[in-house]
Structure formats: structure tokens, C-alpha cells
Amino acid sequence: VVFAEMLEAEDSTLEGHSMAALLAASQAAAGLGRALRFVLLTAGAQEAQEAEAPGAAMGRGLLGAAACGFMRSMPLEAPQLRSQTVDLPACFSANSIETWADRVKTELAVSGQNMEREVAYMGADAA
């Protein structure tokens, strides 16, 4: 299961529908009663750009932190789900979409036993 949702909010104090959708998707996956891999795909949730105006990434940062924290607690709440968070840079050019798609594909190809639980791409590299 791959959950990809915009983690943007016009008001940085609001979570919007993203967290409710993430909770519903994870509950549905857990309710299937079998071992599944559950991947949260984000963009810019763990990255702050120096070029951004102060507070410009606040909504994305708060929602990203909430979503990442949710994913960290998933093994305790639903141990049958192998949770993973893959965070891409917040901004990338149209020319690099294929490159980022290949990186996501590579992450998804790693077996659940060998996957990193949290992967954050900063610019061109994974952290």
C-alpha cells in the first residue's frame, strides 16, 4: 500500500484531511489481517529550504512531522504492517520527475525485511 497525499495546509495550524485519510488507509490495510507493506510518500516533509521565506514551509513541516510520527507509531498499533516513509525534496523540476520516480521505484523494490523505515532524499542524495 502506498499513501501519497499533499501535506500542504493554507493555515499551518490545520491538518486538513490528510491525517484522517492516512488513518483510514492504515486502518483498512490493518483490517485485511495479513502482512502488508505500508509506505507513506511525502515531498518536503523533512526538509526546509533556505531560499523559502520564513514560515513558508510551516504547514508542510507540521503536517509532515505529524505524518512521520504517525508512521513511527504504526509498528506498535498494527504490527502486521511494515511501515516506511519515503520523503522526496519539496521542489524539483519537471525534467527530474523521471529520476525521482525511479528512486521511488527502487525504494519499493527493496524487500520489506531489508527496507529502511525512513528514507529522506535531500537534493540528489538519500539520507
Radius of gyration: 15 Å
What is the overall shape?
globular
- Category by helix and strand content: alpha/beta
Number of helices: 3
How many strands in all?
5
N→C terminal distance: 23 Å
Order of strands, main sheet, comes to: 1-2-3-4-5
Order of helices and strands: EHEHEHEE
Estimated helix fraction: 25-40%
Mean pLDDT: 78
Mind summarizing the main beta sheet? Answer: 5 strands, mixed
- The poorly predicted ranges are none
Can you put this structure into words, describing what you see?
The structure is a single chain. This protein is an alpha/beta fold and 127 residues long. It has three helices and five strands. The chain has helices at 18-31, 58-77, 97-109; strands at 2-4, 36-43, 81-88, 118-122, 125-126. It has a five-stranded mixed β-sheet, with helices on both faces. α3 (97-109) links the parallel β3 and β4 (118-122). The longest helix is centred in the middle third of the chain and has 20 residues, at 58-77.
Please supply descriptive tags for the structure shown above.
37% helix; 20% strand; single chain; 5 strands; five-stranded mixed beta sheet; alpha/beta; 127 residues
Q: What layout of secondary structure does this protein have?
A:
Blueprint: E1 2-4, H1 18-31, E2 36-43, H2 58-77, E3 81-88, H3 97-109, E4 118-122, E5 125-126
Parallel strand pairs: 1-2, 2-3, 3-4
Antiparallel strand pairs: 4-5
Task: Put the structure in a nutshell.
This protein is of the alpha/beta class. Helix content is 37%, strand content 20%. It has helices at residues 18-31, 58-77, 97-109; strands at 2-4, 36-43, 81-88, 118-122, 125-126.
